[in-house]
Amino acid sequence: MAHRWPHMAIATLALLHWSVILVHNAASLLASREQPTAWLEPVINWLPVATYALYSGTNTGYGYFAPAVGSNYGLHVSLYDEHGRLLHEGTDPGLRTLEGRLRYQAFLDVFRNLLPAGTAHPGQGTSLESRYARAVARSIADRLALRYQAAGSRCQVLLYRELPRPPLVLYEN
Amino acid sequence: MFHLLFNHTANPIWLSLLRRGTGGLLLVSFILLWPDFYVLYGLSGVVDGDLLLLQRRAPGYAVYQLLGTVAEAGLSPGLALTALAFGYGVLCVLLCGWQSRPAAAALLVIHTVFFLAVPAFSYGFDYFAASALFYCAVFPAAPKAGTASAADLGSASLRVLQAHLCLVYFFGGLDKLLGSTWRSGEALWKAMSQPGFSGPLRPAAETLMDYPYLWVLAGWAVIALELAYAVCIWPAATRKVWLWATICLHLGIAWCMGLYSFSAMMILLNLVAFYFPYTPLRTPHSRHAGHPPSGAAVAGEGLVRAVRGAASPQEAVDV
After folding, report:
1. Cβ separation of B130 and A51 shorter than 8 Å?
2. DSSP for B83-141?
3. Which residue, among A157, A106, A159, A75, has the nearest Cα to B197 in the 3D structure?
4. Which residues from A are below 8 Å from B25, CB to CB?
5. Does the predicted model carry a pTM greater than 0.90?
6. ipTM value for the complex
């Protein structure tokens, strides 16, 4: 009984910690099933919970590669000089390490927002997310153009598909 | 509840191994990323920093904000980034030994600034690394000739970590079970075959594409392993089987998909939570003279018994 209150305090903290993990995973699970998560968002976005989750690394769902493995995206950039001659082209922004490439690959998931959802023309959606994805594509192309001192650039967002089908072009500029 | 949390006996070596393992792993991972660090996190990196800041998680302070502030102050953002990265490396080393808890807290802040406040270039490894750092900061140091409350705190800390891992695998397995592609084997095949992931065993895995039932079987095996983890990792009879099967799963992820840092972190957390706490507590006598452990130092008879008087204080600090 001498340690009853410290024990209760520790048990309460442990329960709160597990609850934060549970709430984030419940939200992630529902989102992946395209179920509404609005009722969980006030809890997740409440500043004390958001701060705690951020600094305890628990502000994520653990359903990696689930419920399905998403297709990888690619950004193909072609750079041209002032005469229209091709200076450089490729999908690699100059990364040298496996760790860097993995992180860049994870970042390219931002292009999932370009997937056609009832639009006749891929990549022409007007949602905030798809506009953001196009801005990211342009930003990468502009940064590469600066590095190679190119006068113009063209970028294509590609979605890898199962062989032997060619990659699907989601966006061109 | 109290009984489950506090009355657990464990070899406290897991606490020091969590800190050393996390510090070492973060340092290696950071060194591996270093050649591309400025490309991803510098102000003149691959994407405009202001654009990335639109992804900022509310309470976090991101590296792009920091570098912007530094630039506005007329200082060199590149130098600031280098200094911060150097601090990250030094703190990783400190975490392995001297002042490990404050080092873990400071490292967690820098880790969040680099990788989590704007999670654009982040993946699972960064979240588990943050959790490991959080635990390194809040869990007690390996108890010295201590009190029962120190032992209870150690016991509760272990339970927090163990339950966290059970939740990780439960939700991982449940999410896979609810999607059809893992049950059909398609997800596993896709994870191993598409561009973006590469490991030394990938060509070998691709030679198995003509055996679809093998992929179905493997998909179900992953679901079963993850879903049953929370049950089978506890009884002594199944713990070792599940632990090694889980480690094999992560080795497979590393060698087939090239996710080395992520796999190493998961293996470390599994070993720290479910292997080392159940190892026999080594006494000075058994260590120096090569004799087997004494009767008071058998598996599961470590921390709590030691501090409660069933074993000597020297045994309790021998980690």
Report:
1. no
2. HHHHHHHHHHHHHTSTTHHHHHHHHHHHHIIIIISSGGG--HHHHHHHHHHHHHHHSPP
3. A106
4. none
5. no
6. 0.88
